């Protein structure tokens, strides 16, 4: 009778394995919900949601490597609060006004703190179209040896899938 019980135990174990682990099924359902939520977020995304991703990629591609950053204020070229936070994560970040007299003051303050490589990052445009988007950024160096050198305009292309927004290609960048 023992072999029959062992065989029955093996059959039950096999059936349970075939049905799947209830805990694993719950995790699979949760992963599917998360994927659906990410896809829904794609359709509701605003351009401002992608600015931090583009700013991070822009800074990473900048040559020479910036040691501090400027963002435009009072213009439609600003990278906004999300872009500001992204730059602050990379290094000291200062506001750069549109008024030339005020810019001279900022330049003087930056010079007093040292002639570090300083990059002004500006937004030039972009658009979200369903699960695809693009962000156009540009910049130039302010002060120091690189003063006036352009960091180049770049377009960052994004696609959205079940894992969220990502650069569309390994580089995800094109010079414009």
Low-confidence stretches are 1-18
Element order: H for helix, E for strand: HHHEHEHEEEEE
Average of pLDDT: 82
Number of domains: 2
Give the beta-strand count. 7
Total count of helical runs of at least 4 residues: 5
Fraction of residues in β-strands: 25-35%
Radius of gyration: 25 Å
Largest sheet: 7 strands, mixed
Please state the overall shape, judged from the principal axes of the Cα atoms: elongated
Question: N-to-C terminal Cα separation, in Å?
Answer: 79 Å
Q: Into which percent range does the helicity of residues fall?
A: 40-55%
Structural class: alpha/beta
Description of the molecule:
The chain is of the alpha/beta class. The protein folds into 2 domains: 42 residues; 131 residues, no CATH class. The protein contains 5 helices and 7 strands, in the order H-H-H-E-H-E-H-E-E-E-E-E. Strands 1, 2, 3, 4, 5, 6 and 7 form a 7-stranded mixed β-sheet that branches. The radius of gyration is 25 Å and the shape is elongated. It starts with a helix and ends with a strand.
């Amino acid at each position: 009778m023992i072999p029959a019980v062992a065989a029955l135990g093996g059959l039950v174990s096999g059936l349970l394995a075939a049905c799947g682990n209830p805990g694993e099924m719950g995790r699979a359902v949760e992963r599917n919900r998360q994927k659906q939520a990410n896809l829904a977020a794609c359709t509701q995304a605003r351009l401002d949601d992608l600015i931090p991703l583009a700013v991070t990629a822009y800074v990473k591609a900048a040559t020479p490597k910036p040691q501090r950053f400027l963002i435009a204020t009072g213009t439609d070229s600003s990278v906004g609060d999300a872009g500001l936070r992204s730059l602050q994560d990379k290094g000291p970040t200062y506001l750069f006004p549109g008024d030339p007299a005020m810019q001279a003051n900022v330049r003087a303050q930056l010079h007093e703190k040292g002639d570090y490589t300083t990059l002004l990052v500006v937004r030039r445009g972009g658009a979200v179209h369903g699960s695809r988007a693009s962000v156009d950024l540009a910049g130039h160096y302010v002060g120091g040896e690189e003063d006036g050198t352009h960091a180049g305009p770049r377009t960052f292309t994004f696609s959205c899938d079940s894992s969220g927004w990502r650069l569309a290609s390994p580089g995800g960048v094109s010079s414009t």
